[in-house]
TrEMBL record:
The active site is at residue 116. One of its GO terms (molecular function) is metal ion binding. Keywords: Metal-binding, Zinc. InterPro entries: DppA_N, Peptidase_M55, Peptidase_M55_sf. CDD domains: DAP_dppA_1 (cd08663). Zn(2+) 1 binds at residues 8, 10. It comes from Desulfofustis glycolicus DSM 9705. This is D-amino peptidase. It comes from the Bacteria. Zn(2+) 2 binds at residues 8, 60, 104, 134. The lineage of its organism: Bacteria, Pseudomonadati, Thermodesulfobacteriota, Desulfobulbia, Desulfobulbales. Transmembrane segments: none annotated.
Amino acid sequence: MRVYISADIEGIGCVVRSEHSSPGGREYERARRFMTAEVNAAALGAFAAGAVDVVVADSHNVGLNLIPEELDERIRLIMGSPRPLAMMDGIDLGFDAALFIGYHGRAGTADAVIAHTFTGRIAEVRMNDLVIGEIGLSALLAGHYNIPVVFMAGDDAGCREAEALLPGLATVSVKQGIGAYAAICPHPTVCREKIRTAAEQTLLRCRREGFPQPLTMAGPVTLQMRFTTASSVDRVLRMPRVQRVSGTIIQYQAADLPEAFAAFNTMADLIELTPFI
């Protein structure tokens, strides 16, 4: 059994503010250790369930967050950026299952901790009228390569979002949001043990009863993005085939999911060059 883990930081236990998630923030080094420990917990669960290969994608910011020397020696780590499949790079190498660690609610979600979708400049993303955030985008990319997402650990709101999108998904909530930048957080050791146990039990069940069907989306795919400012639309209109729907909304018609994601990923990068107004 080969297992893929995509790891973000905003949904890690005891991470609640940008001081945790931003490199250079006064709590960032602590958050890196928390993130590394939760990834280790998931990987240990996977190995205990019989995994012979665990690949982890460091999927926050520029992909330099996990502390390599503190990871289990059996893990292979994808790090750095830019990457064609962003948070899910390497998923096309072929795996039996994917796990999400440190994932969070999409932009605009109530009681989600540090809720966003790739960047604070994106207010909403739709693909064929399905409203999705990073959880949905990553699950669809996995599904395109016929790989099911079977487990996720993150904040309570993120877990609810994932469960609604992926019925039957096993989740572990590592914090309960009480505001955009505040949460009730169990002790980190408690969260890690829950993650390790749940990852192992979930993968054992999948091996015994069969893996679930992955989330897929057949082409063509209509991508619609709503930005927080009109100036972001001004910038992405430089891309071919991007159409302005309103002051802050664009639409892009793609032949299939990979093209839609490539367009999304490119626009997400482009708008980072746009000043906040």
